[in-house]
Structures are given as C-alpha cells and as structure tokens.
Write a structure and sequence with these properties.
Helix content is 98%, strand content 0%. The protein contains one helix and no strands. The longest helix is centred in the middle third of the chain and has 127 residues, at 2-128. It holds the Pfam family CCDC90-like. This is Protein FMP32, mitochondrial-like isoform X2.
C-alpha cells in the first residue's frame, strides 16, 4: 500500500510538474505572441501616422495651390478693372473735350448770327432813314 501511495505521489508529482511545465510553456508562448502583436500594433500606428501626415500634407498643398490660383485670379481681375477704369476716364475726358468744342462752336455761330442780324437791322434802318 505504501508502495502504491508512493507511486501515486510520484505520478501526481510528475503530473504536476508536467502541468506546470506545460503552463509555463503556454505562458511563454502567449508572452511572445503578445509582444509580437504589440510590435505589429506599433508598426500599424506608425503607418497610420505616416498616411495621416501624407494626406494632411496633400490637403495643405491643395489649399495653398487654390489660394495661389485665387490670388492670381484676383490680381488679373484687379488689373482688368484698373484698365477699364482708365479707359473709361479717357473716354469721359474725350467727351468733355468734344462737348466744350461743340459749346464753343454754338456760341461762335450764335454770335455770328446776332452780328449778321444786327448788320441787316442796321442796314434796314439806314435804308429807311
């Protein structure tokens, strides 16, 4: 009986050591797998950061290009407005000059007409007297 107890104790002890060994082995495998997964997660985080920075940089570039286009368009419109304003001012000055010339001609012809009428009137008065 003692022998069977010793055998059972021995077997139980072997079983416990095997179970403990197996648990330690599984634990070490789980630790390695956990470390591997942590490494993969860090790698994915780095890749995600890189992609986010790349997209952000692309958006910034697009925004800056659009700003540049808008600035160029505004400068073009400004130049065109300035050109049209100066053209309009030149045309207004030309019209004023023509109006002054026409006014001068009207005054000249009015004076000429009045002088002619006065001369005819004086001639008639002289003839009648």
């Amino acid at each position: 009986m003692q022998k069977s107890e010793m055998t059972q104790d021995s077997n139980l002890s072997k079983f416990k050591s095997q179970v403990q060994s197996s648990q330690e082995h599984h634990f070490s495998l789980l630790q390695r797998e956990t470390e591997k997964l942590k490494g993969d997660i860090e790698k994915m985080r780095s890749e995600l950061r890189y992609e986010i920075e790349k997209v952000t940089a692309g958006q910034r570039l697009d925004l800056n290009l659009e700003r540049g286009r808008m600035r160029d368009e505004l400068a073009k419109q400004n130049a065109e407005t300035t050109h049209l304003t100066s053209k309009l001012i030149r045309e207004i000055h030309a019209l004023r000059a023509r109006l002054e010339a026409a006014k001068y001609d009207v005054i000249k012809y009015c004076i000429g007409t009045l002088v002619s009428i006065s001369a005819v009137g004086l001639a008639i008065v002289r003839i009648l007297m």
